[in-house]
Amino acid sequence: MLRKSSIIVLGSASISNNFSLPLVDIPVRAGFPSPADDYAEAKLELTEYLVQHPNATYYIRAIGDSMVDYGIFSGDLLIVDRSLDAKAGDVVIIAIDGELTCKKLSYIKGEPFLVSGNSLYPPIPLLGKEAHVWGVVIYNIHSLQGKCS
């Protein structure tokens, strides 16, 4: 039986709900912007931008602090593509011994490991364990509201 302890499955991606927002097509500076910039607007449908393979993509919510050094925080919305082959360095959703987790796939001395983005959690060796990759995390949606004060 599959237990979902560190992530919450939210559902599959769909591009059928077209909802476009304005896209200001200029670089954003962290300093004072040039008054000479031309602020041309275009439209951006976020799902089309974030989802390359809609039939193989789903959303899942991260829970916990094991990936904070990789910029994934508890409550973040992850966009996961099942059509991609997982490779070293990818952040993956993986069922390991029946439990879903989000970790970076790595090789240490030629052996596969799952690596947390938090030094409090040691790498997890995959040899001898039942593991199934549910997909590669392609985007992380992280709210900044109320977190920068």
Automatic annotation (TrEMBL):
The keyword DNA repair applies. Pfam families: Peptidase_S24. One of its GO terms (biological process) is regulation of DNA-templated transcription. Residues 27-138 form the Peptidase S24/S26A/S26B/S26C domain. InterPro entries: LexA-like (IPR039418), LexA/Signal_pep-like_sf (IPR036286), LexA_repressor (IPR050077), Peptidase_S24_LexA (IPR006197), Peptidase_S24_S26A/B/C (IPR015927). GO terms for molecular function: DNA binding; hydrolase activity. Keywords: Autocatalytic cleavage, DNA damage, DNA repair, Hydrolase, SOS response. Belongs to the peptidase S24 family. PANTHER family: LEXA REPRESSOR, LEXA REPRESSOR-RELATED. This is LexA family transcriptional regulator.
